[in-house]
Design goal:
This protein is α+β, with helices and mostly antiparallel strands and about 725 residues long. About 25% of the residues lie in helices and about 25% in strands. It has 16 helices and 27 strands. The strands form 6 sheets. It has a 7-stranded mixed beta sheet. Strand 23 and strand 24 form a beta hairpin. The longest helix is centred in the last third of the chain and has 24 residues. It is globular and about 75 Å long. About 55% of the residues are buried.
C-alpha cells in the first residue's frame, strides 16, 4: 500500500501534506496493520548475562502456555541461509540465532510466537536459560587504554601536530558525553508475511526501503524483487532505523517457520539494547592561539565505545579539521570494544559529539583571550575548505552569526561570567556552531499527469518526519505551475522507483532534484504533445492546461520516469550545511537548576524549499540538543553490565516544561552548484552545536565549566 497524500494549497508555506492523515489517525504505522489475515504476535527474550556462552534454553513451559505457536532459539531455529559461510565471518552486525555466544546483556536469545500479544508476553516470561559466564567490560573510562584505531584508519595531521603547544595562549581540556538513546515516540515494529516459499512482504519501521529489501533478500537468499517492503509512515528514527536489526530478521524467520504473518514490536526497554545509540565518548581538545585570538593549532583526540562483535565508527574529530581556518591540525579517533550492543548513527552522528568538545573549547579560549565568542569565530573564519583547499559551493555562516545574535539579544550578554542576576536567577548566553556534509545521491521519480489534472509523484523513499512529501510537492508545484492541491505524493514502498535511505541530510537535495528534473521532463513532453505552436524558442511554455492537452489528444495520462544525480560539480567544490545556535539560560544559584529561557538556531542550508517543515526540523533538533546537554544519559550498573534506566521514567528527555521559546531562522540563499533546486540538508545541523551552546551559556551564567554531560544540577551546586 502506497503512502498517498493530497497536498493543500499555498506552496510558499505548505503545511505537512500528511498532517491531516496523522492527526486524524488515518496514517498507519508499521505495527497498525492488524487487518493482515491470520496475524500472530512475537516477543523477544533477552540474555540475563553480559558475556559468555549460551548453554541451554528451557522453552517447555513457554511452549505449553496457552496460545503459543512456537519458541525459536539458537538450538532449534532453522539456519538463516545468508548467514551460512565456509569460513567464520569477520566482525559485523549481530546475526540472530547464529551461534551460542553472548556479547551483551539483553542480547536476544529467543523469540516467542503466540496467537495474541498478551499470551506471547506471558510465555516469554517463562523462558529461562543457562550460561557459561565470562568476564566482561562495560565501562569506557576503565578501558581507555585498550582503545585502537579502527578499520586500518590513520591519525590526521595537517601542518605541525604540536603547534598548539607553543602558542601564546593555549588550553587543553577533556570533554565527555554519555551514551544517549534515540527513543523515538514510535517503537520499532515489523509485520512479516510469507506469500510463497520464495516471496515475503514486510511492513517495517525503516529509514531505507531499498536497503531493508536488499538486507532481507540477502539473509534469506531471495531475489530482491521478491521482498516487498512497505513503510508508509515512520514515527521518528533519528538514525535508529538505518539498518536491518536482528528483531526484523527474527520476525521474518518466525513467519517462515509457523507459516503465518508475525508482528513483532519492541518494548521500550528493548529500544535501549536493540536499535543502537549515540556512543559514550571521551574527548581531549588542545587549542593554541595568538594573543588576539588567531588559531595556531588544534589537537583533537576522541575515544568512543563500540560492541565486542562490530567496529562502529563515526566522524567525531572531523569537525576540528573543517570548521575553522587553522594551519596546524592533528586529530585521532579510536574505539574501545565493550560488552554492549552496537551503536548507530544518531542525529548529527559524530559531528554532534565532536562539536560539543570543539565549541566548548573555543568558548574557553574566548575567555582566555578576552574576546566575544562570535568575534573569535570571525577571526578564524574559513573562506575555503581548510582540509581540501577547495572553494565552498556556498557559505554564509557569517550572516547566520549576525541573524542569531540579533534575535537572541547577544548585546545584553556580559563577558564576565556570573555577573548578571535577574529576579534571583543567574543569566547567561552561549553559542555553538556546526557543519555537516551537504550530499546529493541518486533517485528515480515517476511523474504522472492524469486526465483530471492531478499530478502523481512516485518514489520509494520513506519519510521519517522531516516532511519529504511536503518538499516534493513544493518543488513540483513550482515547476509545473499548478496549485499544490492538484499533487499527490506516493512514497514508502519498495515497488516504487528507487530512492536512497533517508539519512545524512540528503533527501531533499537528492529526491527534490529528481522531482524537479522529472517535472521539467514531463512538461517538455506536454509541449511536444501539444505541438510546435506551444514552443517559444527553445523554452518550455509555462501555465499549460495539462488536462485540456490530454483531452485534445484523447489521452488519459502522460508520464515520465527520471533518474537524477549529481555530476562533476560534486568534485569541484566543498559542500557543507552550516548552523549556529544561541541559548539564553537562567540558573538557580541555590539548586543548580538550569532553565532554558530562549533558543535561536540559524541554518545556512541553501534554498529553503518547505519553510514550515524546515522550521520544525530546526526546532526539533535544538530540543534534541537541549536534552543532550541537560538530561540524557543511559546508565549501566557495571557490577552486572546491565542498564538501570531503560525506561522513560528514569531516562530523561525534554518534555513540554523543558522546552523554551525556540526560533528557527534561515539565511535562505540558494547553493548554485549542489543541485538544480539550490537546497542543502539541515536535519543534522539542527542538533550539531546545541549542547555546547547550552554548556557555554551555563558557564557565562555561573562561572562553572561542566565538561562531563549531562549538565545536571548536582554539577553546579
Amino acid at each position: 500500500m502506497n503512502k498517498q497524500m493530497k497536498t493543500p494549497s499555498n506552496p510558499e508555506g505548505l503545511s505537512r501534506v500528511d498532517g491531516r492523515l496523522k492527526v486524524t489517525g488515518r496514517a498507519k504505522y508499521s505495527a497498525e496493520y492488524n487487518s493482515v489475515k491470520g496475524l500472530t504476535y512475537a516477543i523477544m527474550v533477552g540474555s540475563t548475562i553480559t558475556k559468555g556462552t549460551l548453554k541451554s534454553v528451557d522453552t517447555k513451559k513457554a511452549e505449553n502456555a496457552p496460545g503459543v505457536l512456537s519458541v525459536l532459539t539458537y538450538f532449534n531455529a532453522p539456519k538463516i541461509p545468508g548467514y551460512q559461510t565456509d569460513t567464520p565471518p569477520p566482525k559485523g552486525p549481530l546475526k540472530i540465532f547464529y551461534d551460542d555466544q553472548i556479547y551483551f546483556n539483553g542480547q536476544p536469545i529467543a523469540v516467542v510466537i503466540a496467537d495474541t500479544f498478551e499470551r506471547a508476553l506471558f510465555a516469554a516470561s517463562l523462558v529461562t536459560a543457562t550460561y557459561v559466564k565470562a568476564d566482561y567490560q562495560t565501562e569506557l573510562k576503565a578501558n581507555l587504554n585498550n582503545a585502537f584505531l579502527p578499520n586500518n584508519s590513520k591519525d590526521y595531521v595537517r601542518g605541525d601536530a604540536d603547534a598548539w603547544k607553543s602558542a601564546q595562549v593555549k588550553i587543553e581540556q577533556e570533554y565527555i558525553i554519555p551514551t544517549e538513546v534515540h527513543n523515538p515516540m514510535e517503537l520499532h515494529a515489523i509485520i512479516a508475511r510469507w506469500d510463497a516459499d520464495d516471496k515475503v512482504t514486510v511492513w517495517d519501521k525503516t529509514q531505507g526501503i531499498k536497503a531493508t529489501q536488499r538486507n532481507i533478500a540477502q539473509a534469506f537468499k531471495l531475489p530482491p524483487d521478491n521482498v516487498q517492503v512497505t513503510a508508509p509512515f515512520v514515527g521518528g528514527a533519528f538514525g535508529a532505523a538505518l539498518r536491518t536489526w536482528p528483531h526484523e530478521i527474527a520476525a521474518v524467520l518466525a513467519s517462515q517457520v509457523i507459516k503465518k504473518p508475525v508482528k513483532l514490536v519492541l518494548s521500550r526497554a528493548d529500544m535501549f539494547t536493540s536499535v543502537g545509540y549515540r556512543p559514550h565518548t571521551w574527548q581531549k581538545i588542545g587549542l593554541g592561539a595568538t594573543a588576539d585570538g588567531k588559531l595556531v593549532g588544534i589537537k583533537h583526540e576522541a575515544i568512543g565505545q563500540t560492541s565486542a562483535y562490530e567496529n562502529f565508527t563515526e566522524g567525531v574529530v572531523n569537525i576540528s579539521q573543517l570548521l575553522y581556518a587553522c594551519p596546524n591540525v592533528a586529530t585521532s579517533y579510536k574505539i574501545v570494544a565493550l560488552n554492549v550492543n552496537t551503536p548507530t548513527p544518531m542525529r548529527g552522528p559524530g559531528e554532534a559529539t565532536g562539536a560539543y568538545a570543539l565549541e566548548s573549547a573555543l568558548d574557553e579560549l574566548s575567555y582566555a583571550v578576552n574576546l566575544d565568542p562570535i568575534e573569535l569565530r570571525l577571526r578564524n573564519y574559513a573562506e575555503t575548505d581548510p582540509a581540501s583547499g577547495k572553494p565552498y559551493s556556498s557559505k554564509f555562516l557569517n550572516e547566520a552569526y549576525k541573524l542569531g545574535a540579533d534575535r537572541i539579544g547577544w548585546d545584553e550578554r556580559n563577558q564576565k561570567p556570573g555577573s548578571v542576576i535577574k529576579d534571583g536567577w543567574m543569566v547567561g548566553y552561549g553559542m555553538g556552531g556546526g557543519l555537516f556534509g551537504a550530499y546529493r545521491g541518486s533517485a528515480t521519480v515517476t511523474a504522472r499527469m492524469t486526465a483530471d489534472g492531478m499530478l502523481v509523484l512516485q518514489t520509494s523513499v520513506t519519510d521519517i518526519g522531516p516532511g519529504t512529501g511536503t518538499a516534493m510537492a513544493s518543488v513540483a508545484s513550482k515547476v509545473m505551475g499548478i496549485p499544490a492541491e492538484k499533487i499527490k505524493v506516493e512514497i514508502g514502498d519498495s515497488a516504487l522507483p528507487p530512492s536512497p535511505t533517508q539519512g545524512g541530510s540528503s533527501i531533499t537535495s537528492t529526491v527534490g532534484s529528481a522531482v524537479n528534473d522529472a517535472c521539467i521532463e514531463l512538461k517538455g513532453k506536454f509541449n511536444q504533445t501539444a505541438g510546435p505552436d506551444n514552443y517559444r524558442g527553445a523554452g518550455i511554455v509555462n501555465n499549460l492546461d495539462y488536462a485540456q492537452i490530454l483531452k485534445d489528444h484523447n489521452l488519459d495520462k502522460l508520464e515520465v520516469t527520471t533518474t537524477s544525480k549529481g555530476g562533476a560539480e560534486q568534485g569541484k567544490y566543498a559542500m557543507f550545511s552550516w548552523s549556529v545556535h544561541f541559548i539564553k539560560v537562567l540558573v538557580n544559584p541555590a539548586t543548580g537548576v538550569v532553565r532554558i529561557d530562549k533558543g535561536v538556531s540559524v541554518a545556512d542550508a541553501g534554498n529553503i524549499i518547505s519553510p514550515k517543515t524546515a522550521s520544525s526540523q530546526i526546532k526539533g533538533g535544538t530540543i534534541m540538543g537541549i536534552g543532550m546537554a541537560l538530561m540524557e544519559e543511559a546508565v549501566i550498573d557495571h557490577r552486572y553490565g546491565r542498564l538501570v534506566n531503560n525506561n522513560f521514567a528514569d531516562y530523561h528527555v525534554p518534555i513540554q516544561a523543558d522546552i523554551p521559546q525556540v526560533e528557527a531562522l534561515f539565511v535562505n540563499k540558494a547553493d548554485q552548484y549542489i543541485n538544480p533546486i539550490g537546497a542543502k540538508g539541515m536535519g543534522e545541523i539542527a542538533t550539531i552545536g546545541v549542547a555546547a551552546a547550552v554548556a557555554n551559556a551555563v558557564y557565562n551564567a555561573t562561572g562553572k565549566r561542566v565538561r562531563d554531560l549531562p549538565l545536571t544540577p548536582d554539577k553546579l551546586v
